[in-house]
């Protein structure tokens, strides 16, 4: 049925201005995820023992980490990257709130490594040599029940497990 091929206010050929460059929405939505293989190879070669966990946030968004915790704890992500403009477009077209968006999409935050703070600083420096922006986005704290707290776009979003 051709009447339901696509619904939404934008066409895939419409453009968005990003950093002064007009880019087709279809290209933004279909652009491949960056590969972190070169970074992971270096980190595994140089800091294997410091890595306590690695989460690729595609498919499961910011909540994916909660599936792999070794024990109940609270994960607090209060220094996330600013989401790329394509996610605002998704919000506008879907009507989704922050809780749904951060549960489904990576929101521009694609790879997490769980480690101690000193090792994190070394990993951030390694990422920079490969042109990858990295930073400490949060922390884990002991808790009786597992939960995830996101401080995102001026809003606190909590997931209880």
Low-confidence region ranges? none
The profile of the biggest β sheet is: 4 strands, mixed
Number of helices: 5
Order of helices and strands: EEHHEEHHEHEEE
Q: Gap between N and C termini, in Å?
A: 41 Å
Key traits:
161 residues; alpha+beta; Phosphoribosyl-aminoimidazole Synthetase, Chain A, domain 2; four-stranded mixed beta sheet; 5 helices; globular
Q: Could you explain how this protein is built, in words?
A:
The chain is of the alpha+beta class and 161 residues long. The chain folds into 2 domains: 1-31, no CATH class; 35-160, PurM-like C-terminal domain (Phosphoribosyl-aminoimidazole Synthetase, Chain A, domain 2, Alpha-Beta Complex), CATH 3.90.650.10. The chain has helices spanning 25-30, 37-47, 85-94, 98-104, 117-129, and strands at 15-18, 21-24, 53-56, 73-77, 111-114, 138-142, 147-152, 155-160. The protein has a 4-stranded mixed β-sheet, with no helix packed on it. The termini are far apart.
Précis, in short:
Helix content is 29%, strand content 24%. It has five helices and eight strands.
Explain the layout of strands and helices:
Blueprint lengths: L14 E4 L2 E4 H6 L6 H11 L5 E4 L16 E5 L7 H10 L3 H7 L6 E4 L2 H13 L8 E5 L4 E6 L2 E6 L1
Parallel strand pairs: 4-7
Antiparallel strand pairs: 1-2, 3-5, 4-6, 7-8
